Every structure is written in structure tokens, then in C-alpha cells.
Fold this protein.
Amino acid sequence: MTNFTLVVNGHNHVVTADPDTPLIYVLRNDLGLKGVKLGCGLEQCGACMVLVDGKAEMSCSAPAGSFVERPITTIEGLGTADDLHPIQRAFMAERAAQCGYCIPGMIISTKALLDKNPDPSEPEIRAGLADNLCRCGTHGSILKAIKRAAREINT
Amino acid sequence: MSLSPSLIRTPELDAWIKIHRTGRLTIATGKAELGQKIVTAIATIAAEELDVDPARLTVITAETGVTPDERYTGGSNSMEESGTAVRQAMAHARKRLLEMAALELAEAVGNLIINDGTISGRSNDKRITLWALMGGKSFNYTIDEEIAVKSPDAYRIIGKPVTGLGFAGLVCGTTAFLHDLELPGMVHARALRPPNYLAKLMDVDDRSVRAMAGVIAVVRDGSFLAVCAEREDQVVRAASKLRRLARWDTTERLAANVNIYEQLKSNPRQSLLVVDGVPSDAPVPPQDLGSEQRKTLSATYLKPYHMHGSMAPSAAIARFHETGNLEVWSHSQGVYPLRSALANVLGMAETQIKVTHAPGPGCYGHNGAEDAALDAVLVARAIDGRAVMLKWERDDEHAWEPYGSAMRVEMKAALDGRGKISGLSHDSYSDTQVARPGADGGFSKLLPAWYLQEPVAPPKPQPNRAPHGGIHRNADPIYRIANKRIVKHLVEALPLRVSALRALAAYANIFALESFMDELALADDQDSLDFRLAHLDDDRARAVLEAAAKTANWRGRANAEGAGQGLALAQYKNQKAYAAVVIDLRVDDSGQIDLQRAVIAADAGQVVDPEGLRSQLEGGLIQAASWSLKEEVTYDSGGITSRDWETYPILRFADVPTLETVLIDRPDQPFLGSGEATMGPTVAAIANAVFDAVGVRLRQIPFTPENLRAAAAA
């Protein structure tokens, strides 16, 4: 166990952990950021997405120590129920969640996509969400939510 | 409609509603929120019946000793059971409240109206709120009869768009799933499953694991092996090490040498004739395809094992109190049956156990939830009273969940001189469709129990005799057919663990029947839509079929190179929601199927929450499309080989069609469950569209390019 500093949602956190611990355990269990979901631990489903350097990255396998000096944003850093991010607002408006387990990862991937490409075409949206799995079959509503978010952000 | 069975089981009005002094109301359902938005529907129904703003309501869900016992949340029964029970209970509450208010306000009951919980009369200005009347008090009333519920013409809420409940927490990541709960002093555990069903633990030198940082205990009981540590990252490391140290006897092998579809035909079985949806002990008669047989067709349809594939591996929390009482948190679909199953294995009284539902990932049936609960209990029992959070890993969920059964369906039919079906036979071969745990006597359906030093074995499956139950679900066509012979075959000694997966056998039976309807129509140069309508008396079935065809611009057979359109219809269980599906797709030269557009038309009786209903129907379609195009649990004699999302691929965003859903609202009709209604029509509509596109009849799921090429070559 060693001490190292992670910048998460704009705050510095000194954590005490083995630097090879997968980032997700540090985020969830040391920093209490339980919106980051563990789905597979194999970088195959995208439930654990966080934003790093503007990109959506999976946090379930990469060692926490490798994120020093790379600011991380989790779903908790996007918005709250009282102050929703436009993407979160769009997901709510389209009711784009059934069980909802995959949704934080979906929203993080959407954020990375829209930051890079504020007006994506449908194929670009599908490609932007290629790493995210949903088992409830909410894809249709999620696609509508992303288009709605893009419209909202662009106006 | 009669009094809801849920109200017969729990007739105390106070079990369903509490009115608080603060102006808030608590409504109870025995069903669990699984992502199907039952909480939104229950709140809407209660708010409508009581005339209060839905925002005043808190709906509490499945918890033993707290909510009514409404058994499992499954079978597309929740609206029909709990929705109806809550509506009827609220009608009783309303009646009592109005009677009380009439005395307070010196007004006749018939003159009273309720507006967001405030009751007023016509003859004076006096008013009183529900919470002033009843706040904190009990009704002390037992419901023993059905009374009139609000008439749809008086609705203020139902029929308008409904605000979905619980979405803010889901989009902000603040909804606490079971996996996210933290109890004081809670420790973490992992169970280590054997390499396959039949392997036995020989020995494990766990000294080095016990010495690891944070490790509290290695728990071993026969071939049940688990490890427990202070922190989650510590238990992950410890489990990984323990996995390398455990030595398993793998002499016994799975019966993988014979193709599953051969086993379904050749293994020992019990065969039952199904008459009007009910299995009978009458001898199975010879096939009678009618006296006039102009054309005779037969075909066999095959469905592999499918998995639930929940997005998160199963988890549970267990804690023993000093009294010896046990507390469990589970994402099970049935907290009361799980309590019975745990009491049975542990030799405890049910009254000593409390099971609380906490949200899990979508389960779509019986997944690993209950097994994880027993895992957690076995670890909690071995340590000192601290709460144990036990989580399965991805590999555990993929390899150990009870799969949806493989099936073989044999169809035979004849057409008469007028192009009508003169007789039809339908034979469904399968393992059991439901092996949910409960009070199983000297047996147990909980996986960990089978591996204990003193194992509690699973019971031998018995044929499900319920109307439209397991293997025979949707085997009985809704079409008018004079001579029908429907036989269910419960096949024994099949290799993989199975239980309830969304739609049970309806998915494979409708695949077979609705593909075969197209085969019959096309063999006689009839249009698929016209052929179905010519055999259909049920007006509601006709209406969904016609609505779907119209919305999708049904064009009939077009021989458009590589582009196809297909339709299919079913009423789930012959008694739940009606759904028709039309699929437009393309097939490329490699045999890859690209779904382009899907249209659903559905009739689920009275619609309470249109968006919730749409999302159940569309979710079912996408999941069924995933099963149909991509999914098959693979295994060899050494065990399951589908162990992650690469070895068991599912549908992704690139594969999803555009969706359009038409809801036919029937405000004067009872609720009909919708969560499983589109599964069967989807697979058949895809197969029918593929035939339209490339002239290849797909009779084996999944419709991978390999299987399509094989079907083309056959």
C-alpha cells in the first residue's frame, strides 16, 4: 500500500492503496463514487466508463496508479438531481433507462462523444457507444436521448 | 373481474396503504422493481383511484414481513396481480375515507369529491384532507369483497403521459443497487465455483491466502469454497490466489459428445397431450391432419441454450444477529420464496429470516441472485456476525446461471382445398422451463447447496401442468384450426442447468409456429398477412396484426434482392398482451443480417404508463433479436465455454434497428402483462424476413452467417 494522489471530479484525493488496484475499486470503495458500475472486470461492457483526458475509458482493469496526474470525471462529476447535466436531462426526458445499471457508462460515453463531435450523425452516435452494452434493450431510447442532448447542447 | 388473488392472500387494507400526517402516502406492492417500471405504474394506479398527486406517494416493494406476499415478480403477471390488487385496495380505502369525511363534513357520500387528497362537498364550504382524517391511523379493515373501482371516464391521470419514477437517481448514478450498499462493519466475499458442474474439490492449501492482507476467513464446506476479506480489492486478490491453489477432481465429464438437439429427441422423456393449453394424462392420439389434405408440410425448429446475461454479476448481503436471526438483501424476483428456500437448506424457521429486495441489474428471469444469497449466508455463518457482501464475478454469472432451456419443436400441418389449415401437430421437446427455488422439502434449487459436505440435491423436474405453463407455453395457436394435436415432452438427463428465462418456451414455440405459418402460406402462394387473418377470429389479435402491417407498409412477398420483410403475431401465454412485429432487414453476401426497422403493435388492455409499456415491448424485441441473431451458450465435456461477452456476444448499438411502436389502448379492459409479449413474434418475424430477402428458411437459432450459409446449403 502506498499513498498517491488522484484528481477526481475536480478535487485532489490522497488515496492509500496498492497502485495496481483496478481504478474502479478505489473510486467506488475509497472515494464512495458508486455511480461507477462494475459489469465484467474485463473491459468488455462499458458499465465502468469514466472520463479521462476527454476520452471515455473503462476503469475496471486499469491500475489506479496509472491515473496519477490524469484528471478523472465520473458520473457524479457531471451533474446532480438538482443540477442535471444536459445529457442527464435528455436521458430522463426520453426515459432512457430500464434497470439503469449500464446508464452511467452510457452517459459518460455520450459526454466524450458530444465533446468531440457536438452534432453527430446516427452512425457516429452508434459508433461512439460501440463499447457500451445494454441487456434490457433500451438502445432505442438511448439513441433518442443522445440526439436530444446534442440538440440541447447546440442551441 | 373478481377480487385479486393478492388481496385474498393479504386482505388487510393497512398492508397496502399508510396515510401519514405529513400529507404523504405509502403504497405497498409485493412485486419488485426490476427496471420494468412497476413502481411508476403502481403509483399511477393508486394516485388515480385516490385522487391524489402521484408525487405524494412512496411505493415500497418486496420485503418479507413488510410488504404483502405476491410471490414472484415474473410471468408478465405484475400489472394483472399487483396493479389490480392495488387498484381494488385503493377503492376500498377511498370508500372508507369518504364515509369518514361524510360524517366530518355533514355531507352525503355521493356529494363528495377528492382533489389531490382534499375532500369537499357540494352543500357547504367545509373540506378535509385524507391525512387529517387518517394521518398515522390504521384502517383496521379486512377486504372481503370486490367493490366498484373508478370508471375510466372519470380519470384525471391515466391516459395522459406519466412521469417515470426513479430516473434522476439512475442518470446521476445515485440509485443504490444492491452492489452499492454499505452496511456498518460490512466485509466482502467471493465464492470460488468448480471448473464445471461435476467437479469436486480435492484439496486446497489455503495457508498463504489466510496470511494475505485483510483476509478474514477461507470457508470450505465439501466442494463449496469461499473467501472473505475486509476490503473488496483484498478479496479480489485473495480469490484470485485461492483459485490457483484449489485442486479439483474433474474426472466426471459433461454429456457434450451428443448434439443437444439429438439428445432432446433420444433421451428419456415424459410426453403429455396438451388440450386447450392444459397438459392432460390422456393418451397421445395419432396425428389427424384432417380428411382433406391437399398439401402436407413438416419442419423442425431448434433453439439453443440462452443466458439471462445480466449486466452485473449477482450479489447478496447476509448478516446473522446475536439472536441467531438472519437478514438477507437480494435482487431476487421473489423474496418470500427465497426466504423459504434459505430456511429449507439452513434448517431455520422462516420467521428467523428476513429478506429484502434491493435493485439489481435487469434479470429477465431466474439468474444467479438466489444462489449468491445462499453463498453470502454460508460465509456469514462462518464469521462473527458482520454483514457479508458477496459478489459473483462475470465468469461465475456466465458459467453458473440457470440458462433458458434448449428446445426442439416439430411441426406438421396440412392445407385443404380452400387453402386453409385442415390439421396441425406441434411437438415441443425441452428440459424444464422453471426451476425457481422455494420450499423444496428435502431438496434445494439453490446451487451452493449441491456442493456442501452434506449436499441438498435439486429435485427431479416434474411436468408443469399449469395452463399455458412451461414447455407448452404458446404451443397452442391462436388461429382457428380444427384438428390440433399439441404434445409437450419433458426430456431428462440434459447437460446444462436451466430455469426461467423471459418468455420461457413461448419464444421457441412462437418461433416454430409463426415461421411455419409463413411456410404454409408461401407453399400455397398466399400472402403471410392474409393467410393469418383468414385463420383468425380474435378481433384484438386481428387489430394488432393489421396495425403493425399498416404502420410498416406491409408489401407482401417482393423478391427484392437481399432486402426482406417479415411479420409474426402472438398473444403471450394465449392470455396476456397481444403483439405483432414486422421486421425489415437486409442480408449481405456473407450471410450477415442487418436489422433495419422494427414495428410493434400491441394491445396490453388498459394502458397506465404508455412510455413504460413501450419500453417493455421494445426492450423485449431487442433482447429477442439478440438471442436470435447472436446467442448460443457453448460448452464441451470440460464445462461451459461461454464465459464472458467475447465468447457470448450480444447485440450492440450497431446492430439495433429503428423502432416504432403502436399501442392500442383498451381503457375498459383489464391489464395484460407485456414484458414477454414481443420475444416470440420478433424471432419469427426475423426468420420470415430472411426468407423474403434471400429465400433461405432459418430453422435453427442463432441466425449467424454460419447457420444461414448452412441452411442455404441444406
